[in-house]
Design a protein that fits this description.
The complex is a heterodimer of chains A (256) and B (132). Chain A has ten helices and no strands. Chain A is 64% helix and 0% strand. The two termini of chain A are 20 Å apart. In chain A, helix 5 packs antiparallel against helix 6. The longest helix of chain A is centred in the middle third of the chain and has 30 residues. With 256 residues, chain A is mainly α. With 132 residues, chain B is α+β, with helices and mostly antiparallel strands. In chain B, strands 1, 2, 3 and 4 form a four-stranded antiparallel beta sheet that branches. In chain B, a hairpin with a 2-residue loop joins strand 1 and strand 2. Chain B is elongated, with a radius of gyration of 23 Å. The two termini of chain B are 43 Å apart. Classes of the chains: A mainly alpha (256), B alpha+beta (132).
């Protein structure tokens, strides 16, 4: 895709694109930490492939944002300081053990799916078209996360207690995917976003609660500090940022 | 895991015969089994053996087959079969009997002389080799 993008009908779009791109970028890099050390070779390939999918979605979203802003997608992805990233706090916990990764994937994929559904019929064609493609890949991600959630929940060894601990750690931040965005009413007004984020949060809870209740797993409590949900990234993200920007910073401006 | 998504290649280590009970591999509290993966490259192509995956159950076996033999869009269909469910036949008495069976092959009938005689009788020349 090249060329310019027709001017979007509203402000707030750049914030939406940046939040989604950063979410996909950060979970992609977090999951790529399993490459080489996943529980079995097949899962190593699967998790690495899913991580690559997420980076691909991030690249497409950064590309859309870059054309909107007339900048370079790589610069958006790699040249910001850690505080300028706008991913949600759910993705700020560090990789953790396998149960943490599965719990995070389950919570994030289910939330991302609701968010994508609310954008797929949107009034700005470049985003609606991209979301249509991303949705088809995310379907497999949800199948994969749910398959593992089922197995850990039913495990009579250490899998179940680890999964419960992970859900309790991530729970208060799970809904941060739906933290209200600046200028969100304008996005809804313009028909880009089908409903306010807090309505989407309700849809997401309706979707995941039966699964969690069936397995007697803890439900995510209400979101804490929604106004700071995409700010204040802590040490685990600063470490990850150091990793994923290290090559870029080693020789700024280098071309490949 | 074996194979690379391309034509079937022998596993680097000798795979157990399909009907032999594969040695179970423990992963935590679950047990891994071997699953054979067949792939179709495009609609209408035959299903070809792609390789195998290890997985604790059918659902994850399908996921792993998708990742190892389909993530690069190299397949339009996969068949995933538990290795223990494959019916194995390698009995030499049934497959490689000792007597001459060449008459069961098309090559067992030499047509050249009969064709030459028929042409001579009808006065036809031997057709030229088809040009490429």
């Amino acid at each position: 895709m090249t060329g310019t993008v027709a001017a979007p009908p509203t402000t707030g779009l750049a914030d939406l694109l940046l939040s989604m791109a950063d979410d996909e970028f950060v979970i992609g890099f977090s999951d790529s930490e399993w490459t080489g050390i996943a529980p079995l070779l097949e899962e190593d390939v699967a998790m690495s492939s899913i991580a690559q999918d997420e980076l691909g979605h991030a690249a497409a979203l950064y590309g859309l944002l870059a054309r909107l802003a007339g900048t370079d997608p790589d610069a958006i992805a790699y040249d910001r300081e850690p505080d300028a990233y706008r991913h949600c706090r759910l993705l700020d916990h560090g990789r953790g053990d396998w149960a943490m990764t599965i719990a995070r994937r389950f919570l994030y994929d289910s939330a991302d799916s609701v968010r994508l559904d609310a954008l797929a019929g949107g009034g700005w064609a470049p985003l609606a078209e991209l979301v249509g493609k991303i949705r088809r890949e995310e379907r497999y991600h949800r199948m994969h996360a749910t398959a593992w959630l089922d197995r850990l929940a039913r495990d009579d060894g250490e899998g179940r207690p680890r999964l419960i601990a992970a859900l309790e750690t991530l729970g208060p931040d799970a809904a941060t995917v739906f933290a209200p965005l600046p200028d969100e009413p304008a996005l809804v007004e313009a028909g880009i976003l089908e409903a306010p984020m807090l309505d989407l949060e309700v849809r997401w809870r309706t979707a995941i609660e039966p699964v969690l209740i069936e397995h007697r797993l803890p439900l995510p409590p209400p979101m804490r500090q929604p106004d700071r949900a995409r700010l204040d990234h802590g040490q685990p993200f600063r470490w990850l940022w150091g990793e994923f920007t290290s090559v870029r910073r080693a020789d700024p401006g280098a071309t490949w | 895991m074996s194979g690379d998504g391309g034509p079937a290649t022998p596993a680097p280590t000798a795979a157990p015969a399909p009907t032999a009970a594969p040695a179970p591999v423990a992963l935590g509290t679950s047990v891994l089994e071997a699953w054979e993966v067949f792939r179709q490259e495009k609609d209408g192509d035959p299903m070809r053996h792609g390789g195998s995956v290890m997985a604790p159950d059918a659902e994850l076996a399908v996921h792993y087959a998708r990742e190892l033999y389909g993530r690069r869009q190299e397949s339009v269909r996969l068949w995933v079969v538990r290795r223990g469910d494959v019916l194995d036949l390698d009995d030499p008495d049934l497959l490689q009997p000792p007597l001459d069976r060449s008459f069961k092959k098309p090559g067992g009938y030499v047509m050249r002389d009969k064709l030459a005689a028929a042409r001579a009788q009808s006065g036809q020349a031997k057709p030229k080799a088809r040009s490429k």
